[in-house]
Amino acid sequence: MSSMEKARADFPVLTQKIRGKNLVYLDSAATALKPWPVIERISLFNSYETANVHRGAHYLADQATRYFEESRAAVRDFVHARASEEIIFTKGATESLNLLAQSWGRVNLHANDEILLTRMEHHANIVPWQMVAQQTGAKIKVVELTPDGQLDRQDLARKLSPLTKVFAFTACSNTLGTINPVAELVSAAKAVGAITVVDGAQFVANHAVDVQAWGVDFFAFSGHKVFGPYGVGVLYGRQELLRSMPPYQGGGSMIAKVTFAETTYNESPFRFEAGTPNIEAVIALKPALEYVGKWGWAAIQEHENELVQKARAGLREIAGVRLFGPSQGTAPLVSFVIEGIHHSDVGQILDQENVAVRVGHHCTQPLMEVLGVTGTVRASFSVYNNTQDVELFLKAVAKAKEMLS
Ligand code: PLP
Questions:
Q1: pLDDT tens digits for 251-295?
Q2: Which atom of ligand 1 sits closest to the CA of residue 31?
Q3: In whole angstroms, what is the distance from residue 28 CA to residue 224 CA?
Q4: Whose CA is nearest to atom 6 of ligand 1?
Q5: Is the CB–ligand 1 distance for residue 170 below 6 Å?
Q6: Residue 26's domain spans which residues?
Q7: 210 and 314: one domain?
Q8: How far is CA 222 from CA 32, 63, 213, 227, 290, in A?
Q9: Would you say the CB of residue 229 lies under 6 angstroms from ligand 1?
């Protein structure tokens, strides 16, 4: 038994019976389960510590503000940022990317500037850029993929040019599991003077982030993908860039002085955090990040890799299964279809077997287009899964194939 097997007991969702049977939760790429320390932290705050932040003059308000800022420091260390001021709390990766596209993009993009994306992006890293492209006259360019689902470096070299003002790419594909070489991509973008935006939503649950070593300008992720609460996300931004950016939303906390004639703004990060934030979620993000630290990246990766390789090998033995993405070195997920069978039907049979997966386009419709499918079945693994989960999953897929063929 690997030491990670003990992780299971930390997640109460897995202790219950659903339809009288254990739950095989293979949907962590959509949302990770929450361990006790996170659940308890949210409950503690709501039960005994409730107060608004950055404004009160009483004990609980001071305490809440301190916990809130401690969480910011924990995120700073988690992504290895230089300063806490570089960490902006948002409601998720989606909001982080919208903030960036609107705040940085509206000021810095002009007609015929180019925004470079990749074919494997989640809609959250496409649509905000399209919106700002429409507002500014900038153009979207797309780096295509190799047949095994890696970024096509030759295409990248063709499309990166002095016209490229921003290169926004995912560190890890939520559909293919492809891990991109972030440092290498950042340095290629820098060579043409483009700023870099990394979507870390799928990366943060199993990999160390080092924004300084990478030299990346912006990095976005969501708390719920890394065992944390919903409604909290992060935008890391290099301080020099954040200082030059206008606010995204107006309201309380983001101002220095307001008159009806004009408003001056607070410093970053507060300038980008208008209104009352999701305080309990921000505070409970800290124990989530500490939770991954408890196991360490090496143990997490070894455990998840073993599960994903076993799943892949088992799927290859089922005739008619078509696997997508690289066969090794991926995030802990498998994406596949069974020829001639609709992915939703497969999902339904798996659900009847208590195997929870995601089916559909996974918010990557432009990727589906080149894969030539309307959707896939995606099973994703995390610290709390075990080999028995993989076996039950494979058995359920074989059953789905038998029933639906
Ligand atoms: N980027 C990627 C790669 C994702 O997988 C997701 C969520 O699935 C997002 C962005 C958006 O995250 P959220 O919905 O938490 O804002």
A1: 999 999 999 999 999 999 999 999 999 999 999 999 999 999 999
A2: 8
A3: 9
A4: 201
A5: yes
A6: 3-30+296-404
A7: no
A8: 11, 24, 21, 10, 15
A9: no
